[in-house]
Amino acid sequence: MHKILANKVVGISELKTNPAAILTAAAEEPVAILNRNKPAGYIISPEVWEAIADRLEDIELTAIANKRLNDGNKPVKVSLDEL
């Protein structure tokens, strides 16, 4: 059993038939593309992709900051004016 992570689903043949309609639907929320009733992919809007990419970058930067905070070196205080 495959988990589908979207409220809207279309078959791959429908995507081939009317891709513009699927892209329009994806502007509102993710659309799962099914091939033989299994998820073959997802279509999302550029805005959703940008939000996902920003979130991933934030997670990566948080991990770097935590690693540096816990590296054993003494923190150095600076003010915004000094930067």
From TrEMBL:
This is Antitoxin. Pfam families: PhdYeFM_antitox (PF02604). Gene3D superfamilies: YefM-like domain. SUPFAM superfamilies: YefM-like. Antitoxin component of a type II toxin-antitoxin (TA) system. InterPro entries: Antitoxin_Phd/YefM, phD/YefM_antitoxin, YefM-like_sf. Coiled coil: none annotated. Belongs to the phD/YefM antitoxin family. It comes from the Bacteria.
